[in-house]
Amino acid sequence: MRSAEEMTLNMLMKRECYRQTGTCTGGLCVGWNAQNVMWAVTDDLDKEFGTDYHERLKKWILHSQQNSLVVAGALSDAKGDRSKSPSKQVNPDSNVHLVEKREGGIVVRGAKVMICGAAAANEIFIMSGSDYREEDKDFAIAFVVPRDINGLTLVECRHPSDERELADGFDSPVETGITQAYLLFDDVFVPNERVFLAGEYKYSGNIICYFTANYRSCIGACVTEQGDVMIGAGVNMARVNGLSAKTFKDKYVHMAVLNETTFGMGVGAITMGWQHPVGVWFANDLMAHVNKVHVATLPYEVKRTLQDISGGIVETGCFPSCEDFNNETYGQYVQDCIKAGSCSADSRARAARFAEWLTIGAGVPGCMHGGGSLDGVKLVIRGATPMEEYAVMARKLAGIEEEILEPQG
Ligand SMILES: Cc1cc2nc3c(=O)[nH]c(=O)nc-3n(C[C@H](O)[C@H](O)[C@H](O)COP(=O)(O)OP(=O)(O)OC[C@H]3O[C@@H](n4cnc5c(N)ncnc54)[C@H](O)[C@@H]3O)c2cc1C
């Protein structure tokens, strides 16, 4: 991605993908981002260490493009005890790490978790998940593997709301779902041509910096589009309840304002970005992180508004299962209770389950922690906001000539 325009197109693609699938499309997000980030980091690395990581990456990217590979991306480790660094964990496999360097490649083991799109990807791009020091150098690694490589087990993430697959199944939305998985590496051999970082911990921080700028700007598009789907679900809910959609027009406007805020802020962060000497475009760090704060908060208000419009059938959990709906003895009575507007009881049930799935089920998109938790994001915002400089500006404009010092003690 060499320009703001190219990155904005990625946002538009994500928005369209959400429209089609209603869910997160990992191969177009973390995997895409990993390739762009490592394009820059391998250049940084080669300049300092004389390695040939950039050339390796270039060859692999050409192979990936020529074969139209879908590539998921994995940064998040299982981590273990959050107060300890990877090398201090009781279970050394809480984080993916280097086990051995061999002539033709490296051996890795450990767990990456909550990886979007992994089950549907051809390949998985692995990057270290934090900024490491010397003691954790074995955790500073980046490589790419085919999803079906020997020694890698994928465990699909499931949510109870996806488990209720009954006969003709309105209990589980049929046209959408989740794609996250745990990745368990058990002494997997990765040939050198697929390795792009192997112990040079000094550059693990660059991975996180570059990654978060682009991820946290583009994710604005994902939550926007899921918000658009929620407006649509709200319109349908009004109608299946027998009400005109217009009854709630102010609420749809409220939802749209929240949705477009994260999209616009993402585009803004990209537009105000910068170009790495090797050519990759990175979004403005401060604006991208501010966007992530909105991404982690505003969609919950959109969900609340959808529940408000929908009624208790969506929000209270008091809604019979598909099995009861079809029960031979009392099923018709249940259906008569569910029927409200001019459409069938089945359509109202499906519309309601979908709205429930979006707001309290597996359709909740991970806007809070996906791409990193809020507290870490706020640390970056604090660091990038020059408060002292602003205080001097304000003092000058207020006509204060003496210095105003921080109280002692
Ligand atoms: C839907 C979804 C999709 C995802 N897809 C991907 C993907 O495709 N690829 C990928 O790599 N990752 C993915 N992730 C993982 C995501 O990046 C992580 O969830 C995120 O980085 C937070 O990590 P965690 O879940 O381990 O949270 P935790 O580390 O358990 O954080 C929980 C809370 O504790 C705080 N905390 C943690 N450590 C400390 C500490 N040392 N000191 C003080 N406070 C602390 C955090 O700020 C947070 O408030 C996805 C997550 C979700 C929800």
Topology summary:
Blueprint: H1 4-21, H2 30-49, H3 53-66, E1 71-74, E2 97-102, E3 105-115, E4 123-127, E5 141-146, E6 152-156, E7 181-191, E8 195-198, H4 204-240, H5 249-271, E9 274-275, E10 281-282, H6 285-295, H7 298-310, H8 312-315, H9 322-325, H10 331-338, H11 345-360, H12 374-384, H13 387-397
Parallel strand pairs: 1-4
Antiparallel strand pairs: 2-3, 3-7, 4-5, 5-8, 6-7, 9-10
Helix pairs in contact: 1-4, 1-5, 2-3, 2-4, 4-5, 4-6, 4-7, 4-11, 5-6, 5-7, 6-12, 7-11, 10-11
The chain binds flavin-adenine dinucleotide (FAD).
Q: Into which percent range does the helicity of residues fall?
A: 40-55%
CATH architecture of the largest domain: Beta Barrel
Mean pLDDT: 92
Q: For the terminal residues, how far apart are their CA atoms?
A: 50 Å
The beta-strand count equals 10
Structural class: alpha+beta
Q: What is the H-and-E element order?
A: HHHEEEEEEEEHHEEHHHHHHHH
Sheet with most strands: strand arrangement: 1-4-5-8
**Radius of gyration of CA atoms, rounded to a whole number:** 24 Å
Number of domains: 2
- Our estimate of the beta-strand percent is 5-15%
CATH class of the largest domain: Mainly Beta
* Biggest sheet statistics: 4 strands, mixed
Small molecules bound: flavin-adenine dinucleotide
- Outline type: globular
Give me the CATH fold name of the largest domain: Butyryl-CoA Dehydrogenase, subunit A, domain 2
Q: Which parts are unreliable, with pLDDT below 50 for 5 consecutive residues or more? A: none
CATH superfamily of the largest domain: Butyryl-CoA Dehydrogenase, subunit A, domain 2
Total of DSSP H or I helical runs spanning 4+ residues? 13
